[in-house]
Amino acid sequence: MLEETLTALQTAIQAIAPEVEVIVVDDGGVDDTCSRLQKDYSSWVKLVQREKNGGFSAACNSGIAAASGEWVLLLNNDMVPEKNAVEMLLDYAESCAADVFAVRPAIARVKRLEADDYAHMAMQIHRERGMLRFFIVRLAASTAHSQAFPVCSGGAGLFRREMLHTLGGFDEIFSPFYWEDTDLSYRALIRGWRNLYFPQALFLHAETGSIKKHFRPASVERTSQRNAYLFHWLNISDKKLLLQHLLWIPLHLIRGLAPQQHWRILAFFDALARFPQVREGRKKRLLQRIQTDQAVIAQSNQGVVTKIWVQ
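Below the sequence we write its predicted structure tokens.
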């Protein structure tokens, strides 16, 4: 899939400008990817090799550190932009106001939707069992949509580099995977910046990622739940939301007593073990905060929902 992504990017570069740079991060891989890249793509691809696998956040941060442009397009190796998608996405981003942190394109999974479906997608923040949950939703056709989108995916998203550096990039406390792009996007929102959605640029997701290949389902669930705790402990300052979250924790732990659900208990203690890092990260977020949690949620939840896709 990497070759297909690079081929699409090579075409995109020719349509945009010669000064565009393409950076591939090898996150401690053990296959022949690096040698193939050096042989076939070294004339226009910059390779960043990490000695050890640090997970999604660390790999993204290495790529961002090597970038020099105003905008950074992050792509998974199984994400392929359709014709003109990169050019359209960049043109739109450059027309945006200075408070725009990131722009998310439309992302098509294996089963494609109609173009109108992508045009009326939005993301809303729901409160569920003491947690904030982020859902892709469909707005009614008559609904005026501002194109605001609370979370820009790290798998396919365009980010303003200077703002990335101001935020400190992805928080590697979430390594190896999940919730890191939600955390980054939310930090931008509470700082008073905006994340937008541009459905005219379509990226195809082949979903050949390595998580399911290298991690058992229970381990994936455990990591995701651990990072959900970390996200809330790091970011939520609203007293009511925090109280609801804390009151739900015993019930989450009780659910972990059921057969094959012990990962729920392990996830909590995994998160608790990182509390010294949480304390430091929370201090930094509080210093940068401009928007309240309630304001962020209210701004994200405008519109009439007629159908929900879980993200």
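Strands lie at 22-27, 45-50, 71-75, 79-81, 100-108, 121-128, 131-139, 156-160, 194-205, 305-310.
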